[in-house]
Amino acid sequence: MRLRDLPSVDEVLRDERLVGLPRGLAVDATRRVLELARTAIRDGAAPGPIVEAVLDELESSRRPSLRRVLNATGVLVHTNLGRAPLADEALARVVEVGSGYSNLEYDLERGERGSRQDHLAPLLRRLTGAEAALVVNNNAAAVLLALAALGEGREVVVSRGELIEIGDGFRIPDVLARSGARLVEVGTTNRTRATDYERAIGPETALLLRVHQSNFRVVGFSERPRLDELAEVARAHDLPLVDDLGSGSLGGVGDEPTPAESLRAGADLVCFSGDKLLGGPQAGIVVGRADLVQQLRRHPLQRALRADKLTLAALEGTLGLAFDPTTRDQAPVLRMLHEPLEVILARAERLAERVGGEVEETVARVGGGALPLAELPSAACAVEESLAQRLRTGNPPVVALVRDGRTLLDCRTLTDAEAEEVAAAVVAARA
Ligand SMILES: *Cc1c(COP(=O)(O)O)cnc(C)c1O
Q1: Pair 366, 374: CB distance under 8 Å
Q2: Peptide bond preceding 396 in cis form (omega within 30 of 0)
Q3: Chain segment 70-115, per-residue pLDDT in tens
Q4: Are 17 and 51 in contact (CB under 8 A)?
Q5: Which protein residue's CA is at the shortest distance from atom 12 of ligand 1?
Q6: Which of 143, 171, 216, 371 has most ligand 1 atoms within 8 Å of its beta carbon, as the pocket-test mutant?
C-alpha cells in the first residue's frame, strides 16, 4: 500500500460500523490510526485494516485507567496493586452508603448536625480498649495530625533506630518537620535505652514518639526499651507517648503488636493503617486517651485529612468482621495469610493442568512494610517467561514475577475463581 492509497478521515468515518458513534471520539481515533498507518507504510510494512483498528482504538480509549488486576505475585499487601482487596461485607457497605444519602454528619436521634467521627469510634473502642478514636485518610495523615496537634512548635523525642522510610519517600523526619514539631534524636541506629529518652527530655519536649520499624529489622547487637518502660519515662514527665504501629494487626499475625497491647503497655495514642494487616480500605486510625484524641479532632488539619464516607463505610464493614471471632480472618488479606499450603498447592496444580505449566514451591511475602522477615510457604504455576508482558497488558491484566527465565503465577494471592481467570488469560496470551 502507498501513502496516497490511505483513505481520508471522512472516508473512514462513512463506514457503517463507525456511523452513530460519538463524532469527536471517532475523529480522534481515526486520526491516530491513520497516523500509525502512515508510519507503517513509510517503514515498508502493511498497515492492516483501518476500520477495525479505529474500533479497537475507541474501545481502549473508553476503558477506565484504574482497573481490576489479578495479583499473581505472592505479595499480599502489594503497595503498587492497591494493598488490600476489600471483603464483601466492606463492599456491601460502600454500595449501601454511596448509592444514596447517608447520616454521615447528621444525628438522627436529635435531628441535628453530627460528626462523621462518631460512627466508627464505638467499634474501635471495643476492638482496642481505647477511650476514644479518630479516622483520617491514611496512617501517614494520622501520624502527621498527632504530631501537629500535640507537638507543633515543640520537641518530639525519637530513637535514631526508628527514623524510618516507609516507601515512596514517607520519612519520619520529614513528616515531623511538616508537622511543625522539632525532632530530637536519641540513641543510635542499633541501640537505644529508656535513659536516652530520659536525658533528652527538657522544657520544650511535647511528646515521646515510638515508631514500629515496619519494613526492616535490626538484628544482632541491638536494643530498644520495651513500650512499658518508655511509658514509665513519659508518665514520670507527664508527657504523652505516641506509638506509630504502622500495620496495626488486630490480632494473631506473627509477632506484630496490636493496638490493644500497645495501649495496655501505656501508649497514650496509637496510630495504625486501615489497609495493611487490618485488610480494609486506605485509612489512618488513631486510638487512645480521650483528651488527646479531642485535641486531634479540634486541630485544623483534621478537616483536611479526614476520611471520606466511602472509606468510613468500607472500614466499618471490615471492622465488623474483626469484631466477631468467627469472621475475624475473613478480610481477604488475612484469609490469604492464613490459608494452608495444601489448599494453595491444589490451586497451583489445577492451574498447571489447565495451562500445561509446572508447579513450583515458592515463598510469598506479606508486603506493605509489614513482617519483612515472614516467609509464607506458597506454590506457583510456572509458564514461559515471554508471557509475562502479554499477561500484564491483557484483560484483565495479570501481574506476576519473572524468575530464572520463567513466569511464576503465585497462587497464595489468587482465589480459586481468580486462578480460573488466570488460566484463561494464559491461554489468550499464547494465542
Ligand atoms: C505504613 C506505615 C505508615 C504509613 O501508613 P500509610 O497507611 O501508608 O499512610 C506510617 N508509619 C508506619 C510505621 C508504617 O508502617
Answers
A1: yes
A2: yes
A3: 999 999 999 999 999 999 999 999 999 999 999 999 999 999 999 9
A4: yes
A5: 246
A6: 143
Question: Which residue's alpha carbon is nearest to atom 14 within ligand 1?
Answer: 246
State the Cα–Cα distance between residues 355 and 358, nearest whole angstrom. 9
Q: What are 376's three cell numbers?
A: 509464607
Residues 6+ apart with CB under 8 A from 194: 225, 229, 230, 232, 233
C-alpha cell at 43: 517503514
The rounded Å distance from CA 171 to ligand 1 centre is 10
Q: What is the pLDDT of residues 16-38, one digit of tens each?
A: 999 888 888 899 999 999 999 99
CATH number (3.50.50.60, 3.30.300.130, 3.30.70.890, 3.40.640.10) of 87-324 reads: 3.40.640.10
Q: Which residues contact 250 (CB under 8 A, 6 or more apart)?
A: 127, 128, 258, 259, 260, 277, 278, 322, 328
Rounded to the nearest angstrom, the distance between the alpha carbon of 21 and the centre of ligand 1 is 46
Q: Which three cell numbers stand for residue 405?
A: 527465565
The topology under which CATH files domain 70-79+333-430 is: Aspartate Aminotransferase, domain 1 (3.90.1150)
List phi, psi (to 5°) of 209: -115, 130
Identify the residues whose C-beta falls under 6 Å from ligand 1.
138-140, 143, 166, 170, 211-212, 214, 244, 246-247, 273, 284, 369
